[in-house]
Amino acid sequence: MLSFDNTCVFCFILLNVYIVYSYWSSLLATLLVYSALRLISKNYRSKLDIGQKGVLITGCDTGFGHHLAKRLDDKGYTVYAGVLSEQSPGAKALQARQSDRLHVIKLDVTKDDDVTQALTFVRSTRPGLWAIVNNAGINFPADVELATIDQYKRCAEVNLYGMIRVIKAFLPMIRKSKGRIVNMSSVKGRYSWPGDSVYIVTKHGIETMSDSLRLEMKKFGVKVAVIEPGQYDGATSISSPEQLKRLRKEIDFMWEQASEEVRQTYGRSYFEAIYQGMERETSGGRTMLADPVMNAIEDSLINVTPQARYLVGGSFSLVDKLGILAKIYNFLPEFISDWIVEKMTGCVSFTR
After folding, report:
1. Which of 273, 258, 268 has its CA nearest to residue 148?
2. Catalytic residue of the set 77, 80, 199, 266
């Protein structure tokens, strides 16, 4: 027979088991309901018929911008495809479509004159401007100690300040149409990563700027959305041969500008490993469909109630580990998130 003390202990254990079971059951039920509501909302949200209204897209020479320009043109939208060069292969491919709805315009987002001329052109054409898709961007991997201030500035000038420059110029037209602003960020806008701060600080900036703009524009009926693609290198030009040539020059410049102490500490091989890491991503000729990202952008343009953020996982593996990390990163204590990133990158080890 159980003694009184043993009975109390047994009851206490049962109570704790019940509490834990109730907690996890409630949590699981909540997650299931939340998932069901998200699924329903995605499938049944009202769509807008924006007809042939205009959409301005930056960075259409290659990658997501190029894919999106073609897709929206095929669907009957008026597209203003901003390109860095009207002579680039991507620009010529868009021009070859000979579509009356597709306007290929020179738009270097780092130049005030280009933005002003693009604004003048869009204002002079019909049917007006419904949305901006800020897609133009560049990448440059490097440790904080190795990257130069100039490299930080040049990356930010395209990814962040170029985006702000375009938004400020075209915002009066967007306010008038009560339209949309869609900003291309990344899963890396949600977490930190060793050896990639030059790029990541711009994506974090895009996230916070977009949040401020979304709140500011509510009173005007303008919606602001952020697109956060996961591992879609195969669908972009971020590791293209042209970008690798640019990266090769940047790595050499970084080495030339490094102090003697930094050179002795890291060694030339460490600098070369940065380039080789990017080069490996292009090996094998891997390609990837951009459709999931295109679907998210299109939803942000025509949904009555678009999401504030569209995290779009993508990977050549079964799951996008970076996409999962982006979802949980801010909920984890630093010692856990640091441990995860350390295991994924091996950043705590150092070899020359």
Report:
1. 258
2. 199
What does 275-313 look like in DSSP terms, one character per residue? Answer: HHHHHHHHGGG-----HHHHHHHHHHHHBSS--SEEEE-
Query: Interior CA angle at 27 toward 25 and 28, to 5°?
Result: 65
CA dihedral 313→316→317→322, nearest 10 degrees, is -40
Distances from the Cα of 325 to the Cαs of 16, 186, 193, 336, 338, in angstroms?
Answer: 32, 12, 11, 11, 11
Burial class (CB in 10 A: 0-12, 13-18, 19+), 208: exposed
Nearest to 104 by CA among 72, 82, 120, 127: 82
Two tokens at 117? 């001329």
**Active site includes 199?**
yes
The CA distances from residue 316 to 5, 231, 289, in Å, are 58, 8, 11
pLDDT of residue 319: 78
pLDDT at 285 over 50: no
Task: List, in order, residues 6 or more apart from 5 with CB less than 8 Å away.
Answer: none
DSSP string, 50-115: -TT-EEEES--SSHHHHHHHHHHHHTT-EEEEEES-TTSHHHHHHHTT--TTEEEEE--TT-HHHH
Rounded Cα gap, residues 228 and 312, in angstroms: 6
- Cβ contact 226:310 at 8 Å: yes
Phi/psi for 53 (5° steps) reads: -55, 150
The residue type found at 267 is: G
Return the residue matching tokens 């007006």.
Answer: 128
Q: Please state, in angstroms and rounded to a whole number, the distance separating the CA atoms of residues 161 and 346.
A: 32
Q: How far is residue 65 from each of residues 34, 55, 232, 290, measured CA to CA in Å? A: 33, 12, 13, 10
pTM of the shown model:
0.84
pLDDT digits (tens, 9 = 90+) for 102-136: 999 999 999 999 999 999 999 999 888 999 999 99
Residue with tokens 């991997």: 141
Nearest one of 198, 100, 209 to 151, comparing CA atoms: 198
